[in-house]
Amino acid sequence: MTDTPKTLVRRTPWPDSASRPVGTPIQPSVVYASESPDMLDAQYGGQMPGYTYAREGHPNADVLAAKIDGMEGATDGLVTGSGMAAVMAAMLGALKAGDHVLGGDQLYGRSLRLMHEELPRMGIATSLADPTDVGAMAAALRPETRLILIETVSNPTLRVADLAGIAAMVRDRGILLAVDNTFTTPRAIRPFEHGADIVIHSVTKLLAGHSDATLGYVAARDAALRKRILDVAVTMGLTASPFDCWLAERGLYSFELRYDRAEENAAALADALGAHPGVRRVLYPLRPDHPDHNRAVGLLGGRGGNMVSFEIEGGRDAANRLVRAAPDIAFAPTLGDIGTTLSHPATSSHRALTPEARAEKGMSEGFFRVSVGVEPAALLIGELTAAIDAAVSGQG
Ligand SMILES: *Cc1c(COP(=O)(O)O)cnc(C)c1O
User: For the ranges 63-72, 292-301, 304-313, 345-354, which has the lowest average pLDDT?
Assistant: First the structure.
């Protein structure tokens, strides 16, 4: 037996090159070797830049964060291991036991669960109110209210929050306004320009755009709060892996093109569905028949986004027929993929609600949400209207 040469386990120096890579390199290293204890001391002390340990920060996270900072008009945002890690880092960075959080009543499912189950367990009181109604939000405030969490456009009924009204309401009360901007993205609205104190993303969705990376992002206006959020994220292990960051940064190069095309398709699909006899109701923020149409136009500056929801007659059986009749449209509980995906809230995101609670929010068994992708609009409209025909006629 020959001994493995000991040089094999030592790291080989990275080759020098006078030219630089055009593609972003991946740096998967968990640890970084410093030259001396003096240097390490200076790095931990903040007098010298550089990385030490990947949970605390790494180049691929910083490259991605800087890009999203630029899109949101933010400073020193943090990339997290998921959208929920971003929500959690914001909550735990801003809140303590005894505080109260007021949430929008149509938050993302796991954010609702955080409000109902996890925060109360930690001594943080929570309640929900309708963010399209600033009077209802004001009535739900308590002396201990420290933070409001809303989404500008809600899932899946695409209601538009009264962001201006809520921002004005909290302005002089010392209440933080956190906005989850996943659905709208900075292409439609930059919440910091509308009075938000914290902006959150599930980067998993439209920003990364290819359903192959799970990531989040959180940025705060106030530097002290940013520091607390960073400390919470690093201590609780909420930060992200280099490879996911690399994928998301790669996805961002085409984000604006993808968003604009998907939005154009969504508007065309909404009009096609609106004219289809098998469709009972279609929801798209820029359609005049949307319940928050005027606010959507004012707040989103003509950006309707890529999400369309609609309802057909016929209950669960018709819903099953519709999905089976559109096999090329992924039936998957996500959004923001480059291709169109279809979701059925009654059996996925909103399955925990009673049928009565769903009905109150306008989600019957015939209710679908479409995350529109970038394929040719005619193809998508053809597939979906044919599937609706099959569903409502009882065939398929
Ligand atoms: C998906 C989503 C989240 C959670 O993000 P993950 O990356 O899945 O953890 C939070 N908020 C909204 C609005 C989302 O759509």
Answer: 345-354
Backbone angles phi, psi at 3, to 5 degrees: -70, 140
State which of 110, 112, 152, 157 you would mutate to test the pocket of ligand 1, scoring each by most atoms of that ligand within 8 A of its C-beta. 110
Residue 53 belongs to a domain: no
Domain boundary among 228, 252, 276: 252
CB neighbours of residue 30 within 10 Å: 11
Instruction: Please give the tally of structural domains in the chain.
Output: 2
Residues classed as catalytic: 55, 108, 180, 205
Going by C-alpha positions, the residue among 153, 88, 137, 173 that lies closest to residue 303 is: 153
Token duo for residue 389:
């025909």
Helix (H, G, I), strand (E, B) or coil at 120: helix
Cα(215) to ligand 1 centroid in Å equals: 9
Q: What is the CATH number of the domain that holds 330?
A: 3.90.1150.10
Domain membership of residue 163 (yes or no) is yes
- Residues 104, 179: one domain? yes
CA of 83 to the centre of ligand 1 (A): 5
Q: How many residues does the chain have?
A: 396
Residue span of the structural domain in which 263 resides: 255-393
- Within 6 Å (CB) of ligand 1, which residues are found? 82-84, 108, 111, 151, 180, 182-183, 202, 204-205, 214, 216
Which of ligand 1's atoms lies nearest the C-alpha of 334? 1
Of 188, 217, 252, which one is at a domain's C-terminal end? 252
**Closest Cα to atom 2 of ligand 1:** 202
Q: What is the pLDDT of residues 331-390, one digit of tens each?
A: 998 999 999 999 999 999 888 888 998 888 889 999 999 999 999 999 999 999 999 999
The alpha carbon of 12 and the centre of ligand 1 are apart by a number of angstroms equal to 40
Q: What is the pTM of this model?
A: 0.96
Residue type, 382: G
